[in-house]
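In the previous chapter we treated chains in isolation. Here, by contrast, the input contains two separate entities that must be folded as one system, with a combined length of 599 residues.
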Amino acid sequence: MTEIELLSWARGPGLQIATIIFVAGVVIRIFEILLLGRKANLAEAKGAEMSNGLKTMVTRTIPDPTTFKRSSVTIVSGYIFHIGLFVVCFLSAPHILFLKDIIGFGWPSAPTAVIDAFAVVTIIAMLATLINRLTNKVMRYLTNFEDLLTWFLTFLPLVTGYIAFHRIGLTAPSLLAVHILSVELLLVIFPFTKLMHAFTLFIARWYNGAISGYRGVAS
Amino acid sequence: MTKDVRLQGGEPEQAPEKGTPEKGTLGEALRSQGVSRRSFMKFCATTASMMALPPSMIPLVANALEKAKRPSVIWLSFQECTGCTESLTRAHTSTVESLIFDSISLDYHHTLQAASGAAAEAAREAAMEENHGNYLLVVDGSIPLDNPGYSTIAGISNLDMLKESAKGAAAIIAVGTCATYGGIPHAKPNPTGAVSVNEIIKDKPIINVPGCPPIPVVITGVLAHYLTFGSIPELDHIGRPKVFYGQSIHDRCYRRPFYDKGQFAETFDDEGAKKGWCLYKLGCKGPTTYNACATTKWNNGTSFPIESGHPCIGCSEPDFWDGGGFYKALSLPTEDLSKTAVYTAAGAAVAGVAISALNRAKKNTSNKIHIKTTIDDLRK
């Protein structure tokens, strides 16, 4: 297989397979969660469910001071790499073009120098989370294989994208193919790991807020 | 890495006839055709710089080229469109490059030679015999393997002719993407079973000079390297001379600053296109294509496709014809992904509901068959 053939496979059948697994996995899991059903709450409602749920979706974005003090490295590096991933994924011109091809609309891109800077910062932040995870005794105790796998498979597209942009080591078609393949790998494992939090995060926040709202307590 | 093969190109076994430009040195041939010393030196300087040699090497290149004896060249054309030959012979007015090309001893080229039929084949056989072990074999076009009858010359299949001619060659120059990587005949569904030269010949040094067609100056540059150093130039991982194919079109493109600023032409006639912005979104394959177009340019250094407002189609890369469409940006999927996503989501939604129903049924069954443990049970 030549490198151009590899690239063609990655852009064609590879992407199709990854999309099918990703979409099917995510949709089935969300349906399963939403259709789980809850027992009817017979207690009298002491507040509003919906508004509290919606409020909590936003308020939980800011960590409370005690949690921040206890896990400041996790929170700061976590925030940096999530914002960085967002910028790199959704503001780089080739990525916008890719998304536009699927969803039908696009938006202006950021200059490559900005994307490049964000990529470097994100890589550093992700390395910081890993070091923290491995050096902090409690974190290390709580870490399982899935944590390391999801970290690695999130880190991989970032690094391969950076290397592909700067053409380090291999030729451009190989680097681009490796980058696309690494994204496909991420898409494939996405629905089966904790990466699903990207979709379940706001559902969970709403649910927590709604329960508290019903009980009339702060969430 | 320079291949460790010392070629004796330029030294035909028959002694050249003194004083006749055809059989003399390259320098004599050029002078006899009115090439001035100045333009010859200019060519040497350009060639040296293209080959990434220091300026101090220019006199050496000039000296070597002037004294080089004309090597015998046999040019085989297989499944091709003659575009490679056209590129060499017609792209320029009479330049030093084309004269150098004229000044090799082109003993067989069935498009250019006057002889035809048996006489032409006799010329090839004679050249092969006279210069056995020393001649250069230039091949353009791919070789069909499915059926030898798909492409024959004088009744000889391309495969047989290539094998026979390669035996006594000092080195092979595969010219054009068809000869180097199969090219357009090799494109899906490859009806003739077309393959490249290096898939057949394994025991000779092969220099790949891809492009559809290749830049004339690159071909003459390879010849100049051979004549100057007597060896083949340093090649990349797919057999291309690094001096010409070492950098991507994207990295040397004058429109690169627009890419970096995020300024793209969205269509061929929008403001961006008029302002000369980057053609990435219009399918430019510059980022994955290695060639010298952006530096040496075409038509006597006039311009190259991107300069004319058309994206690079990546013609010097293997399988460029099957790369998912010339006008589809590199980051785009080659197949319709939105359809796949919508159909999958619809199917998965149905599956999700069904799975949830099964889950509920299981839960209900469990509840029904659940036997509560009483205090009496525990006392038993």
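Chain A has one domain: 3-25+64-198. The mean pLDDT of chain A is 93. Compare these points with the single-chain example from earlier in the chapter.
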